[in-house]
Design a protein that fits this description.
- This protein has about 70 residues and is mainly β.
- It is built from 1 helix and 5 strands; from the N terminus they run βββαββ.
- Helix content is about 10%, strand content about 40%.
- The longest helix is centred in the middle third of the chain and has 6 residues, at about 40-45.
- The chain has one helix at about 40-45, and strands spanning about 10-15, 20-30, 35, 55, 60-65.
Length: about 70
Amino acid sequence: MSMKCPDCGAQRFFVKDPEDQYNIFEFDVKGGKICYSDKESESDSPEVIEETEIFCDRCAWHDKFKNLK
């Protein structure tokens, strides 16, 4: 089961790099697991925990990861 944006229904999200706000890491959430779109990003990405702010890739929605569930 994929998680969807509560506003637009998109299934792709991103998290910003805490050291460089212009660098983002895109991902989908499938079965409760984060699946990065770029395999290289997986090892370099910041850890996404319940309190991490995530952003919808299609609309302006953003909130903590725990609120997506």
